[in-house]
Amino acid sequence: DIQLTQSPSSMSASLGDRVSLTCQSSQGIGNYLSWYQHKPGKPPKPMIYYATNLADGVPSRFSGSRSGSDYSLTISSLESEDTAIYYCLQYDEYPYTFGAGTKLELK
Amino acid sequence: EVQLVESGGGLVQPGRSLKLSCVASGFTFSNYGMNWIRQAPGKGLEWVAYISSGSSYIYYAETVKGRFTISRDNAKNTLYLQMTSLRSEDTALYYCARLRGTTRAHMDAWGQGASVTVSS
Fold this sequence. Notes:
The structure holds two protein chains of two kinds. Chain A is an all-beta fold. Chain A contains no helices and eleven strands. In chain A, the strands form two sheets. In chain A, strands 2, 4, 5, 6, 9, 10 and 11 form a seven-stranded mixed beta sheet that branches. In chain A, strands 1-3-8-7 form a four-stranded antiparallel beta sheet, with no helix packed on it. In chain B, about 0% of the residues lie in helices and about 50% in strands. The radius of gyration of chain B is 13 Å and the shape is globular. Chains A and B meet through strand 4, strand 5 and strand 10 of A and strand 5 and strand 10 of B.
């Protein structure tokens, strides 16, 4: 199975900060990686698909990028509503696998 | 508006069975593959099962293979997950999710989840 390693596991940042979360794949998955924002009591919300494409309704301060087997989710200017756990998912092949998540909090 | 509504969760004893349903609305259900995803308390997300739009292709996570059965009724716009021989480690919030695309499809819509607790 393809393993996704997310880093850091948790982080805190201040309002307005530029924040980058990373997801590394154990094998090649091309651009078949998505990011989800998960808040307590709500279902995961799609943020990015195909590594760099913004999902419907997602603010433009979010962006996705790829460098080889390393994928990043960047928030250009952190807002309070962005606090959540962020998961990456590879959908190149079944079994689909998620990273362990990055918990993003406000400092 | 795309909606997915899960039901059928509850408290069940180890070894017993439970069947989850996911009713879809706001889109042509028969055109989309579907996944079940779960999240155990305090844990991350885990893919459970996949079914293609016409039920031709079905895959399971190794953790549930042989115990869970995914199915769908396109006439009723409903996805199912039949769970048998339940174990305490199956305790989780179960989400159904729509797949956007045919192969290599990402999940673009999720239900609110159905809670399953396996305990004596």
